[in-house]
Amino acid sequence: MTVDILTFGCRLNAYESEVMRGHTAGLTDTVIVNTCAVTAEAERQARQAIRRAHRDRPEARIVVTGCAAQIDPAAWAALPGVHRVLGNIDKLAPETWQAERTIVSDIMAVREVAPQLVSEFAGRARAFLQVQQGCDHRCTFCIIPFGRGPSRSVPIGAIATELRGLVAAGYREVVLTGVDLTSFGADLPGRPTLGQLVRRLLALAPDLPRLRLSSLDPEEIDDDLWRLIAEEPRLMPHLHLSLQAGSDLILKRMKRRHSRAGALATIRRAQELRPGLAIGADLIAGFPTETDAMFEETRALVEETALPFVHVFPYSERPGTPAARMPAVPHPVRRERAAGLRALGAANLNRFLHNLVGQRVAVLAEDGTMGVTEHFARAQLSQAASPGEVVQARVIAVADGVLLTERV
User: Fold this and answer.
1) Alpha helices, DSSP H, located in 306-330
2) Is the pLDDT of residue 107 over 70?
3) Does residue 16 lie within any of the structural domains?
4) Which of 59, 144, 248, 343 has its CA 20 to 30 A from that of 298?
5) Residue 155 within any structural domain of the chain
6) What is the CB neighbour count within 10 angstroms for residue 369?
7) pLDDT digit string (tens) for 172-208?
């Protein structure tokens, strides 16, 4: 049987799964589980997948890696059927897949990110490109720095080489990924910024029509990136911000770097510079000590800014983090607040989509008649297109959160 890779969590994990796929030629009957540690639910889903794989394929070798495995390797090694546990650095090394030993690397001692060459993303119309790894910040709720280590940037030359390879392979949209994307370049000679990187990449890959950014820290968008947001049509009109909350006291207890006013200023500046821009945000509902009044500040921010894409997490305790020792909000309250934010986000999205009716959009076809616009809105084409093809279409209606379009 073949090698199957099960990926949980972020776009960076999706990228790294493709790196591993390129290193596993010759392996047989293997299941690789690339775990996520952001929430307890993400870990539960990975454990469930491991148990299912062991039940359905009892002879298969199960290899577990990713952030959850990095943080607590013994717990994952103890699961039935697990053959190896790999650290986040070792999983990317070709020689790891030739060795027959359990490896969990000390990534806190690793300061470099080895350049990777990925030219294919199985089953995906968009490609991901890693430009940065790790995080130097210590938000009180986040365990990821313990799974990813300190912030390290990929050299611009290596990024450009990989981008050109992706364009040559036919990808029409590339998403820049990292753990803390806006920290890119701080450890490189000359300290280039993310905006300078984006400008260089667009110049070096003139045939790439669509470049998209993953999550950004609202406090760390540099001047070059602001100019590109305003002026560069190939940089997609879609930003996703790591907001987490709209209450100053909760943001302080989270040890975030922005304030409520700062977040509002970032959102308004983006909307003014690029009219029609779509903005998304990560939000945590029910953070420890969050009162009804504090939650209302977050809810009001989402309503005031009309954010169409909200990614809401009920707060999840991560053992070893400062927030896990703070007075907890009851689980039912967390779930109720998360549901309220999601409902508000759905209403915002519905209004955003209806404002696109009658407009022309560029749809990146993904599967059959389904695709995604430059605003990251889901769209249905009037006729099927090849995955990866960019189709010019007009929005004629909205149904169940999807744009209905016809070719033009």
Assistant:
1) none
2) no
3) yes
4) 144
5) yes
6) 17
7) 999 999 999 999 999 999 999 999 999 999 999 999 9
Residues 136, 247, single domain; the answer is yes
Phi then psi dihedrals of residue 388, to 5 deg: 95, -15
How many other C-beta atoms lie within 10 A of the C-beta of residue 88?
Answer: 26
> Which three-class secondary structure state does DSSP give residue 230?
helix
Indicate the Cα dihedral angle 93, 47, 100, 3, nearest 10°: -70
CA distance 162 to 316: 36
Number of domains in the chain: 3
Q: Are 81 and 62 in contact (CB under 8 A)?
A: yes
Q: How many CB atoms lie within 10 A of CB 6?
A: 19
Q: Which residues, listed in sequence order, are joined to residue 127 by a DSSP beta bridge? A: 174
Provide the CATH number for the domain around residue 297. 3.80.30.20
367 and 391 in a single domain? The answer is yes
Contact 105, 95 (CB under 8 A): no
Work out the number of other CB atoms within 10 angstroms of the CB of residue 94: 12
CA distances for 17 relative to 96, 97, 384, angstroms: 14, 13, 28
pLDDT digits (tens, 9 = 90+) for 31-65: 999 999 999 999 999 999 999 999 999 999 999 99
Range of the domain at 82: 3-104
- Residue 115: inside a domain: no
Residue 74 tokens, joined? 């013994």
Non-local CB neighbours of 400 within 8 Å, separated by 6+ positions: none
Is residue 116 in a domain?
A: no
Interatomic CA distance for residues 182 and 215, integer angstroms: 9
As a whole number of angstroms, the distance between CA 237 and CA 287 comes to: 30
- CATH number of the domain within which 64 lies: 3.40.50.12160
Residues 312 and 176 in one domain: yes
Pairing of strands 238-244, 210-213: unpaired
